[in-house]
Specification:
Structural class: alpha+beta
CATH architecture: Beta Barrel
CATH topology: Lipocalin
Number of domains: 1
Number of strands: 9
Strand content: 35-45%
Low-confidence stretches: 6-24
CATH class: Mainly Beta
Order of helices and strands: HEEEEEEHEEE
Helix content: 10-25%
Number of helices: 2
Strand order of the largest sheet: 1-3-4-5-6-7-8-9
Largest sheet: 8 strands, antiparallel, barrel
Radius of gyration: 20 Å
Shape: globular
């Protein structure tokens, strides 16, 4: 078989198109434990011994980030998560308020970038300054 420029081009094109193939769709469904939040360059670790989590299912998210519950609608387009905050209860819980306020602020940003690293999910604000890191339960 003779190897020429056309053969090389066809092989290169096939490899390039294969590398550009779409990855599997992002699947957020399930319960995710809060690992850290806040400044993307120096996130704050989630409070120990606090059951802080977010559950995603069928366009709805809900959870608890310390003391209060939250709920919202969401949509996912590629790696872009758009939220529409529905509710957050407002009990005063001194030990968890800083964590709750920070996480709720980030979720209410409306548009977040979604990325995965193993079983960890990172939600990043549009400007890249704030993050929420979650781990699949």
């Amino acid at each position: 078989m003779k190897f020429n420029k056309l053969t090389a081009f066809v092989i290169l094109a096939a490899l390039t198109l294969g590398a550009c193939a779409k990855s599997a769709p992002v699947n957020l469904n399930g319960e995710w434990k809060l690992v850290s939040y806040g400044d993307a360059k120096n996130p704050t670790l989630a409070l120990p011994d606090v059951n802080a989590f977010i559950t995603f299912e069928d366009g709805k998210l809900n959870g608890n980030v310390g003391c209060n519950g939250l709920g919202a609608d969401y949509s996912l387009d590629g790696n872009t998560l758009t939220t529409s905050m529905g509710f957050a209860t407002k009990m005063y819980c001194q030990d968890t308020m800083a964590q709750e306020d920070a996480v709720l602020q980030i979720i209410s940003e409306a548009t977040l970038k979604v990325s995965f690293d193993g079983n960890k999910l990172t939600l990043t604000s549009a400007d890249g300054a704030l993050v929420i890191v979650l781990e699949k339960k």
